[in-house]
Amino acid sequence: MVLTSVELLDELLQYHASALGNDLPAYRNHTYRVINFCSALVGDDPVSLEKMAIAVAFHDLGIWTDKTFDYLPPSERLAEAYLARKDRVEWVPEIKAMIREHHKITPYRSNPSWLVEAFRKSDLVDVSLGIITFGLPRKFVREVLSRFPNAGFHKRLIQLSFSRLLSHPLSPLPMYRL
Predict the structure, then answer these.
(1) pLDDT, tens digit only, all 178 positions of the chain
(2) Model-level pTM greater than 0.70?
(3) Do the domain assignments include residue 172?
(4) Is 122 among the domain residues?
(5) Alpha-carbon dihedral of residues 126, 127, 133, 136, nearest 10 degrees?
(6) Contact status, residue 164 vs residue 157, Cβ threshold 8 Å
(7) Cys-Cys crosslink for 108: which of 116, 127, 153, 169, Cβ 3.0 to 4.6 Å?
(8) CA torsion, ordered 96, 121, 151, 45, to nearest 10 deg
(9) Residue 148 is part of which domain span?
C-alpha cells in the first residue's frame, strides 16, 4: 500500500517551504518516494515511520536552507535541532546516521537494528529512478514513482552537481561515502 499522507512529514516540509521555494513539490515527491520505499523494506510501525519522516524531511534540506551542495552537515544540524526541540534526543544518533550515510556506496553495517541501511537503499531506489530495487516489487516501485512524479527533482540534482563540479572540481560530490 502506498503512503500518500504522512502528517509529520507534511508538517516538516511546510515549515521549510519558504527555504525550498519552487522546489517544494519536487522535494516533497522525492521524500514521499523514499519513505514509501523505506517502509516497504522495513515496515511502517509508528516509531519507525516517525523516524523515517524526520530523516527524510531533513536528509537533503541543507541544499536549500544553507544553499550548499555539501549539504549533509547542515541537514544533520537541522534534524538534531528539531529532535532537541521535540525531546527526542535519544533518536539523534540514528537520525543523523540516516542522513549522513544515505549516499554511502557500500552497505551500512555499524548498527544493524537502525533504519540507516533501509533508508540508504530507499534513496538509491529513487535516485536510480527505480532501476535498482533491492528486491522491492517492480509493480510497487512503478506505482510509487507514478503517484509521486519527479517534478524536476533529478534535473535539479544534475544542475547542482554541474555547478558544484565547476566550483569544486576536486570535490564534486561531497555527499558520497564509501
Answers:
(1) 899 999 999 999 999 999 999 999 999 999 999 999 999 999 989 999 999 999 999 999 999 998 886 789 999 999 999 999 999 999 999 999 999 999 988 999 999 999 999 999 999 999 999 999 999 999 999 999 999 998 777 677 767 656 645 665 556 555 556 6
(2) yes
(3) no
(4) yes
(5) -10
(6) no
(7) 116
(8) -70
(9) 7-167
**Calpha distance 141→143 (Å, rounded):** 5
In a domain, 110, yes or no: yes
Say if CB 97 and CB 76 are below 8 A apart.
Answer: no
d(CA 125, CA 58): 18
DSSP 100-157: HTTTBSSPP-S-TTSSHHHHHHHHHHHHTTTS--TT--HHHHHHHHHHS--TTHHHHH
Say how many domains are in the chain. Answer: 1
